[in-house]
Structures are given as structure tokens and as C-alpha cells.
Design goal:
Layout: H1 13-25, H2 34-41, H3 45-73, H4 75-94, H5 101-122, H6 125-137, H7 143-169, H8 171-180, H9 189-192, H10 195-212, H11 220-227, H12 232-252, H13 254-275, H14 277-283, H15 291-298, H16 301-315, H17 318-336, H18 345-369, H19 375-408, H20 418-429, H21 432-454
Helix pairs in contact: 1-6, 1-7, 1-10, 3-4, 3-5, 3-11, 3-12, 3-19, 4-5, 4-6, 4-10, 6-19, 7-15, 7-16, 7-18, 12-13, 13-18, 13-19, 13-21, 16-18, 17-18, 17-21, 19-20
Length: 455
């Protein structure tokens, strides 16, 4: 049998399936209405916050162990597990019972834990499998091209998913469509609130099918695990050993540590802003009905930012790229403090662009210096650090809000006034530029010290 010469990374099955997996796994139709979906099901805002905390905790606890298991028992196996978990997670959300608050909360708690487990299982394993496949069957110099294609296609699909998810949730719009089609069906919010979830369940099934079509690429670690397949306990201990080894490697490898800390710096600050964007949009005088369209519009940046990131990664140094991201970040953070009506979208767009740069650059640089046998574990450590920083940022932000609110009124009853809440939010945004600058300067000093020491 004659083997066809390598021509393109997209001729490799695992590479194509990696792109398809990233797109389908993240195609969550309910994201534009995430908060109001849970509230309309019957939860309180406090319960919703607790569920999000459980989601973040499950990711933090499972992120690195799942990466180590991927490096030992196989990346494909972890991806198949993530597909199964996504199906169960979405099925629980589709059929979550209403009318019994206690049972509803319990079901949704399981949903959030499974969702975090699915995220942890997929994190690192998908990228490690695609990168190792490209390394063995193609040319790793084409990895930036793969990243660019994946991010651009994901952006296109995200725009479509955001628009459809918000549309099918609206009972008025859906009723008009049903009437136009000649069907005699009365739709209410109680019915349409499940539509985005059912669509996401279909994507979960497609995600599992994609993972089942992937092929495992042997590495030294998972080959040993297969030879010891009769002893699962040994495989588990091997995974724990690999976790410790990867952690030590990160701490002893200056460039790896600096890369992860750099990504952490940009990620946790910008992610917090994206979490708070609905309140920001309201204060720059944008109608609530436009929020879904704005989120879809921001996804347009995924069409051209990856191409620019690829050019910068291949033609500029990592230091130059980090300083460019820092300049864009501080511009966005400062711009948001002015709360300019409508034009305030520009600084938010800058921050969203930096987030895309962060994803691209970290994948490009970190994969180049990481050995195949521990790649998924190292990438999982990256996800662990990101989520820990994001969680700590949330705690610090809640203390900041409480502090600013206490300054506005001694009377706790007045503190819930909407005008006070808006003022507190506006003042809290003003703290972010200084916070970022302090951490960025500390990162520069630490990077200079570590690199000088290593040389």
C-alpha cells in the first residue's frame, strides 16, 4: 500500500476531528440566556451563584488528574468520556423537574458538576491529541495554521449559535414563526426555555460521535499504561506520578512558567469583564434585547484575530507579543472606565481580541517546548491555574464591591438601591487598570529574573 505524501495538516483525520470537536463541544445554544434560563427554571440568584461555584470547583479538582489520565490511558478515551458527560449533563438540563425547588436544585447541581467534569476531561486532551498527530503524521510547523482555522470556524459557528439560541428562547418570536408556518400551537416561556438546551443536547450527541472517530496516537506514557492494562491501580498511580512530574517540570522550566503566568494574567482579568458585560452594556445605554447580538458580533473578531496572531507568532518575539497584548489590555481597561454610551463597545472589543491572542499564543508557544508524553498534563495545569486565578478574582471582586458599597451608605437597606449598585459597579471598574499594571510589572520583573537565572 502506497502512503500518500504529506500535503496539508487538514488532510489528517485527527486534525479535522479536533477542529470539529472544539466547535461542537463549545456550541452551547443556551449561553446567551444562561443566567435567565436557570432563573426561569425556578432558581434564586443565590442558588445560581452556588451552582457556578460548584462548576468551577469541579474543574479545579479534576483538571490536572484528567490531563494525567489522558497522558497515561489515552487522550481519545478522555475525549470520549467528555462527550458522554456532555450528553448526560444536557439531558439533566433538558428534563430538570420544575415545581419542586429542592429536587430542581439537586438535579442542576449534578448538572454543573458533570459539566465541570466534561470541561476538565476535554481540556488539554484534545489539543495534545491533535498536536501529537500532526507531529507524527505531518509537520508541527503547520500548527499555527491549524489553530487559525479552528478559531475562525469556531467564531463563525459561535455567531450562528448565539443568534439562534437567543431567538428560540423568545416565545413571542417563536410564536410568530409557528403561526407563519401554519401550525396551531401555543408557545409560552415555559416551553421555549428548553429549546436552546435541546439544541445543545443534539450538539452533545454529535460531539460524542466525533470523539469515537478519533484515533489514539501512542506515546511513551500511554503505551506503558496499555501494557499494564491488567492492573488499573498501577495506571492510576502512574497518572499521579506524571502529574507530579509535570508540575515539577513547569516550576523548573522558566519559559513554561512564564508563559502560563502570562496567560493567567490576561485571562482572569478579561474573563471577569466578560462575565460582567451585561451590566456594563446596560450602563453604556444599550438595550437588553441587543446583548445576544453584541455577543455574536464580538465573535466576528475570531475571523481575523487568529490570522494576525499567526503572523505575529511566526514573525515577532514572544516578548513583543506580550507587550502588545498588555498595551491593548490597558487601553481596553482604561477605556471601559469612561462608560461612553454605545462607543463603550470599543474597549470591550479590545479586551475580547486580547483573549483570542492569549488562546493562540499560549497554544503556539507552550506546545513547542512541552514533551509529548506529558503534553496533556501540562495543558491541564494551565487550565487549573487559569480557573484558580479566576475564582480568586471573583472572591476579591466581591470584597471590593462590599467595600465600595459600605462607603456609599451606612444603612444596609439603601445599599440595594439600583442607583447605588450602578455607582458601585462604575467605581469597581476603575480599579482594574491599576490592578493589571501592578501585576504586569511584577510579571516582567519575575520573567527577567527567571530568564537571567536560567542563562
Amino acid at each position: 500500500m502506497q502512503i500518500k505524501p504529506y500535503q496539508s495538516p487538514f488532510a489528517i483525520s485527527n486534525v479535522r476531528l479536533f477542529i470539529a470537536f472544539r466547535i461542537c463541544f463549545n456550541a452551547r445554544f443556551y449561553y446567551p440566556v444562561f443566567t435567565i434560563l436557570f432563573l426561569d427554571l425556578g432558581l434564586s440568584i443565590e442558588q445560581f451563584a452556588l451552582l457556578n461555584a460548584a462548576w468551577a470547583a469541579s474543574i479545579v479538582l479534576l483538571e490536572v488528574p484528567s490531563g494525567a489520565l489522558a497522558d497515561t490511558i489515552g487522550r481519545r478515551n478522555l475525549l470520549v468520556a467528555s462527550g458522554v458527560l456532555m450528553i448526560v449533563e444536557m439531558a439533566l438540563l433538558c428534563f430538570a423537574p420544575r415545581g419542586n425547588p429542592g429536587l430542581l436544585f439537586a438535579v442542576l447541581m449534578i448538572n454543573r458538576i458533570l459539566s465541570g467534569a466534561a470541561e476538565a476531561s476535554a481540556s488539554g486532551a484534545d489539543e495534545a491529541l491533535a498536536y501529537d498527530t500532526l507531529q507524527s503524521q505531518g509537520d508541527i510547523a503547520d500548527w499555527p495554521q491549524v489553530l487559525e482555522r479552528q478559531m475562525r470556524l469556531k467564531a463563525i459557528v459561535s455567531m450562528i449559535v448565539m443568534s439562534i439560541g437567543a431567538a428560540v428562547y423568545d416565545p413571542v418570536l417563536m410564536q410568530k414563526i409557528v403561526n407563519l408556518c401554519g401550525f396551531k400551537i401555543a408557545l409560552t416561556q415555559d416551553i421555549t426555555l428548553r429549546f436552546p438546551v435541546f439544541l445543545t443536547l443534539l450538539m452533545a450527541v454529535l460531539t460524542l460521535i466525533i470523539t469515537l472517530r478519533m484515533k489514539e496516537i501512542p506515546t511513551a506514557a500511554n503505551s506503558n499504561a496499555r501494557r499494564q492494562d491488567t492492573n488499573r491501580v498501577q495506571a492510576v498511580f502512574q497518572a499521579l506520578g506524571l502529574t507530579l512530574k509535570a508540575g515539577v517540570w513547569i516550576l523548573k522550566t522558566p519559559m513554561a512558567l512564564i508563559l502560563i503566568l502570562s496567560g493567567l494574567l490576561f485571562d482572569h482579568i478579561i474573563r471577569m469583564h466578560l462575565t460582567l458585560n451585561s451590566q456594563y452594556f446596560r450602563l453604556i445605554e444599550l438595550p437588553a434585547a441587543s446583548f445576544g447580538l453584541i455577543s455574536a458580533g464580538l465573535s466576528v473578531f475570531g475571523l481575523f484575530v487568529p490570522r494576525l496572531a499567526r503572523y505575529l507568532a511566526e514573525n515577532r518575539s514572544s516578548g513583543f507579543n506580550m507587550c502588545l497584548m498588555a498595551a491593548l489590555t490597558i487601553s481596553g481597561l482604561v477605556g471601559m472606565t469612561f462608560f461612553i454610551p454605545i462607543l463603550g463597545l470599543i474597549p470591550m472589543a479590545l479586551l475580547y481580541s486580547v483573549m483570542l491572542f492569549t488562546v493562540f499564543f499560549l497554544s503556539y508557544y507552550l506546545n513547542r517546548i512541552t514533551d509529548s508524553k506529558q503534553r496533556a498534563t501540562v495543558l491541564s495545569f494551565k487550565g487549573l491555574f487559569y480557573n484558580l486565578a479566576y475564582g480568586l478574582m471573583g472572591i476579591m471582586y466581591s470584597f471590593l464591591i462590599a467595600h465600595l458599597r459600605s462607603q456609599k451608605s451606612v444603612n444596609a437597606a439603601l445599599a440595594v438601591d439600583k442607583a447605588v449598585e450602578n455607582t458601585v459597579f462604575i467605581e469597581s471598574v476603575g480599579w482594574f487598570p491599576g490592578y493589571f499594571l501592578v501585576l504586569f510589572v511584577l510579571l516582567l520583573i519575575f520573567s527577567w529574573w527567571k530568564l537571567k537565572k536560567s542563562q
